[in-house]
């Protein structure tokens, strides 16, 4: 979670506040999108792991 906090410290991300500074606004927007993509990737990895664990458990139960 610390990387998320660092990116927010660099660019205070608030909708509609940085219209006078479009570069900062866009940087904040892309930072937030990057964080969202990273979270989605992590969720996908966790789901895949859970699926693998479930398959392993099923195969162990079948062996008994």
Core attributes:
disordered N terminus, single chain, 64 residues, rod-shaped, mainly alpha
What does this structure look like?
The chain is mostly helical. The protein has one domain (2-63). Helix content is 80%, strand content 0%. The termini are far apart. The relative contact order is 0.09. The model is unreliable at 1-9 (pLDDT under 50).
SSE blueprint and pairings:
Layout: H1 2-10, H2 22-63
**Uncertain stretches:** 1-9
Name the structural class. Answer: mainly alpha
Question: Over all CA atoms, what is the radius of gyration?
Answer: 20 Å
Give the % helix.
over 70%
Task: Please outline what is shown here.
The protein is an all-alpha fold and 64 residues long. The protein has two helices and no strands.
């Amino acid at each position: 979670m610390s990387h998320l906090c660092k990116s927010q410290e660099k660019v205070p991300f608030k909708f509609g506040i940085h219209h006078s500074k479009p570069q900062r606004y866009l940087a904040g927007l892309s930072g937030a999108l990057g964080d969202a993509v990273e979270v989605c990737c992590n969720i996908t990895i966790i789901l895949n792991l859970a699926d693998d664990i479930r398959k392993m458990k099923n195969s162990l139960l079948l062996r008994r």
